[in-house]
Amino acid sequence: MRFVHGQLAWMVATALVLTLLGSLSYELFFVSSLIGLLIVTELTAPFHVTPTWRRRLLWLIGIGLVGFGYVVVRRILEILPPEVLPW
């Protein structure tokens, strides 16, 4: 339950801070939540025994990293001038 509470607190704080800064978007919230997932996963990791549910987090982290790669590629394509792109 520490993991769930920590992740939920991180996501609520992220949404609140992004709203106060006036820059709340799906991409920023997703990337910030992924960073929070990685941090909370490391901070709540047990030292000696790994529960089975924590092994399933690897799939969630992998999907999050694929989504992060998609966001980065999309942002790079937005920055590049049109004459650089082959299509």
From TrEMBL:
The chain crosses the membrane at residues 7-24, 30-50, 57-77. It holds the Pfam family DUF8044. It comes from the Archaea. Keywords: Membrane, Transmembrane, Transmembrane helix. This is Uncharacterized protein.
